[in-house]
Amino acid sequence: MPLQAHNTFGIASLAEHFIEIETREHLVQLPVLNAPKPWRVLGGGSNILLEETTSGTVLKNRITGIELIGESDEFVILKVGSGEIWHDLVMFTVGRGWGGLENLALIPGTVGAAPIQNIGAYGVEVKDTITEVEVWLWEENRLATISNEAAQFGYRDSIFKQQLRGKFFVVSVSFRLRKNAVLHTEYGAIEAELHTMGAVPSVANIAQAVMNIRRSKLPDPKIVGNAGSFFKNPSVQNSKFDALKKAYPAMPGYPSKLESSTKIPAAWLIEQCGWKGFRRGNVGVHDRQALVLVNYGEATGADIWQLSEDILQSVFDTYGVQLEREVQVWSN
User: Mean pLDDT across the chain, nearest whole number?
Assistant: First the structure.
């Protein structure tokens, strides 16, 4: 099964086996079908890098549905099928004035990927709204509910990328959203964009501002293959940042959630090393956002991987800072 249309990088990978999962009952049938392992879950394909062939069985997530399962004077709780398109869910909540997801508008992918990656943007992380994640555990052949606390959410991290890696399928995610939203406009250019729009802060206006900003900075994967931000922002000990700041006075930094650490924008590091707008054959670094690696045509996963390796080495050689990839690599 060709996967080129199923990943936003547009990598022409070939899956050995491909099964569409539309209900949780389909998951129960996998052992009966003798589906070859490893089992790999494919949502929107927006955060993966593929090789020329993908071994095992690719499980295309098509579990949908948005259900209101709880409500109070302050909150609503939604249970959402993991195959729902993330941006569609954001717009669903914004249209009802429910706050919590508006800063995460236009992030590509499906709902099931959101807790795995603990997606975040413009001062908000999805962990702040998730109450629980329902998963199917392969080895135990059963459903399990992972609470917010048990999910061990961190910066673009969770238990799903660590202890449970390769052992589960997200079935649904439950979110607690505010009827009276607590608005976040302090991060990035949201306030400036609201001013340009002539709009007051609201759930709907913040979502629109975020969409305007993202569209101005990021390439549309339907036009240019990419997976959004390829690298995480690194955190370094405050003492190391102080030394770097002394050597490079223009280096930006902001407090990290890690103790005694400062987070440095990876885009700044990459741009300072001369990679922004770089192109090598069919691969390159986007000319408006240094975090984004792009496929200009017939690039392979190996081409993109090598470019990322070169960037990692360049940043480390220049600043002594080790970047980490945000994109997940499906290796055979």
Answer: 94
What the block records as the tokens of 282 is 């069919």
Domain 66-178 sits in CATH 3.30.465.10: yes
Of the candidates 137, 91, 96, which has an alpha carbon nearest to the alpha carbon of residue 111?
A: 91
Encoding tokens for residue 309? 């390796």
- Considering Cα of 274, then 278, then 284, then 290, what sign does the dihedral take? positive
Q: Which of 229, 256, 261, 308 is catalytic?
A: 229
Output the pLDDT for position 32.
Answer: 67
Q: Is the pLDDT of residue 77 over 90?
A: yes
Q: Is 229 one of the catalytic residues? A: yes
Percentage of the chain beyond pLDDT 70 is 100
The Cα 261–Cα 259 span in angstroms is 5
Give the C-alpha distances (Å, rounded to integers) separating 219 from 9, 129, 215, 291. Answer: 11, 28, 7, 11
All CATH 3.90.78.10 domain ranges of the chain, comma separated, are 225-330
> What is the SS3 assignment for 307?
helix
Assigned architecture for domain 4-61: 2-Layer Sandwich (3.30)
Name the fold adopted by 225-330: 3.90.78
Whether this prediction's pTM lies above 0.85 is answered by: yes
CA distances from 124 to 155, 182, 183, 279 (A): 11, 11, 10, 32
326 in active site: yes
Q: Which one of 102, 134, 156, 193 is the catalytic residue?
A: 156
Q: How high is the pLDDT of residue 30? A: 81
